[in-house]
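EI: anyone free to look at a 367-residue chain?
SC: sure, send it
EI:
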Amino acid sequence: MDSSSPDVVIAGAGIIGASIAWRLAQAGLAVTLVDAGTVGGEASWAGAGMLAPGGEVETRDAWSDLALESLRLYPDFVAELESASGILIDYRRSGAVDVAFDEGEWQSLRRRAEAQRPLGIPSICLSAADVLTRIPLFNREIAGALFYPEDAIVDPRDIMRALRTACCVRGVEIREGFRTRRIDGHGDSVEVEGECLTLHASVAVLAAGAWSSQIQVSVNGAHESRPQSFPVRGHLVGYQLEAGSLGPILRSGRTYVLQRSGGFTIAGTSSENVGFDRNLDERVIRDITARAGDLLPYLSQRSYTTAWNGFRPGIDAPAPEMRRLDGNNIWLAYGHYRNGILLAPVTANLISRQILSSSQHVGPHQN
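SC: here you go
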């Protein structure tokens, strides 16, 4: 293909944009994937990788249905991606244990479980002895606990390595360091303007996460109004423990602990509205380690080995933007906030199918 005139240009090479690129390339379209930084270098790199509607969903709405569908898609998504890339992905349906330390917390958990049952989110009540059986390191008195058997864990860095390889195998052109300034739709064609080059295509997808609102979107030169994205910084800390020592995700309120297959254990998190400030905040890190040590006292005896942060893609709307702009060939796929990793398979399917079923997606740039 002419590298400046593909069928589709996707602005943003995180897990959302790269998953869409892979699906479209599988269908035979010429795809260019651009990013101001590197593939998977932002929120997708920083995320813990909890696939956990059990801890997120309480009422049925469009977002909850998508979350549950995406969780069901994940085993096949991972298997297909491993086969396409030859890269093993650390994924397991570990389940999650939510613990309550007083009667008020326990009644709140039980009400949540009752509300979740009609949505198809199963949970099981656990005693303190049951929790100790599942998590031998846990030695606190509790008022009650719930086990969510379908919650899972994935390493998003593995996903991104595999997506990059799978995209390259399918001929996706990757342009790192391409800072998109503007996307302009003109009927059945689009222009994606960078700092030094403008790409022409039949379709454009905006999937730049927290940076999506820094990219101007227009139709025939007129500014297009859309929900604004913004960064929500989150810190995480990591401990190196013995592999297999944790088992399921452990949660209480806004604190969680999970473990990779190799023993690397992650505790989180925070939610900070500080713009794009990348500095590590020692006060926040101390707060997370204190909360994690309170939840799992074993961690209070261990020193964390690393800490990092990332920018969740917030949005001033009740759900992510996953749609086509009216009357042109620009699609939006941003604003997934805390659930970009979870929602990647369903978002990729939704956006790619819409593009492929559009009568206008085939333009002069298709092979």
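EI: The first strand starts at residue 8 and ends at 11.
SC: 👍
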